[in-house]
Amino acid sequence: MKFSYGNSWEKYPIRDNETWTDKQSKSFVTVCDITKGIPQYMLAADMVYTDPPWSLGNANCFITKAGKDNYLSNFPEFSIAFFLRVKEISPLVCYVEIGKQNLQLFKDKLSALFPVIQEWGITYYKKNPCFLLRGGATPQSYDFAGLDDRKTPEAAIRAENPICVADLCTGQGLTAVAAYRIGKRFVGTELNQRRLAVAIDRINKLGGRYEGPIS
User: Reading across the β-sheet that carries 116-124, which strands appear in turn?
Assistant: First the structure.
């Protein structure tokens, strides 16, 4: 496969609509399309930290890499579904990494759900500029400015000290790994089964025990 992401999926062959769990931490992950809904377990989260697609091209690229062809015709179609899922979870605080192209759109959507919106300039891949948005009831005093997104999930989780962290776009597991390292429960969804297998592999190498599928 062109987008195989290594051999993690061969070790942890999670499939579409399957849920795997780490019983030790009571954490769950599922391969699913969040535009169609999310598992009930996601509603347990009191914090969301996620890095969703931030443009139409970006979103459709992830669809291609997942081996699917249900392409979006416009980006607001995705953003409406994304924030509907955030609203369903109803977390106390929500962090979203986003690019410049639809920055204002995401700020406006967060403003409809939270009274306080904060913004920091951060990077991804240690060089590319992007933004970290936070919605909550009160401001967060920790300054994320200038951090790389490999560090921001753990910094945010430590600053907020939640009970359970959710990631709607788990990817290869930056947020999931950060939550595991800190000892927090994690719940996540991801469109691409091979990317989610990488997240499972990373956590299990740290001592986790993700296995499945569960009914």
Answer: 116-124, 128-136, 93-98, 47-50, 164-167, 185-190, 27-31, 19-22, 210-214
